[in-house]
Specification:
Blueprint: H1 7-22, E1 27-34, H2 56-72, E2 78-85, H3 87-98, E3 102-106, H4 112-118, H5 121-128, E4 132-136
Parallel strand pairs: 1-2, 3-4
């Protein structure tokens, strides 16, 4: 299961824990800290003047919290991986290395414009993962 700390990802953590308990399956929690984009204009130096803060500790805490939550729920075979890189590529690499047969992720529900500009992790995983992908949606509030 992959997490980014969003509300949707937290819902996916719950579903993954429930499935792991129900089917006595092992659970791998994955978080990939995205590489910070570095943009420059022609008038700026090639190397940035400030270095963005390291996002890895935040994602490591997410993994540790999800692993602890799974253990507290009774999942005996649970582990976690935190890495840094391109999110989709990192998740796909871990799924392949671990031999996972199910990937559980949350859906952020991006608008069509944001999805076009940013891409959708869940859509990319559905299209490229070597395993079945379960996309967990959170209920939307009624108007």
């Amino acid at each position: 299961m992959a997490t980014d700390g969003s509300e949707e990802a937290e819902a996916a953590v719950g579903v993954a824990i429930d499935l792991a308990k129900r089917y006595a399956a092992d659970l791998l929690v994955i978080a990939i800290a995205p590489l910070p984009p570095v943009y420059t204009t022609p008038s700026e130096p090639l190397l940035p003047q400030t270095v963005p803060s390291d996002p890895v500790p935040y994602y490591r805490k997410l993994v540790d919290a999800a692993v602890a939550r799974a253990r507290a729920a009774g999942v005996s075979d649970v582990s976690g991986v935190c890495d840094e890189g391109v999110v989709v590529d990192g998740i796909l690499a871990q799924v392949k290395n671990h031999g996972s047969d199910l990937v559980v992720v949350g859906s952020r529900g991006l608008s069509s414009v944001r999805r076009l500009l940013l891409g959708s992790v869940s859509t990319a995983l559905v299209n490229h993962a070597p395993a079945t992908v379960l996309v967990v949606r959170t209920p939307t509030p009624s108007a």
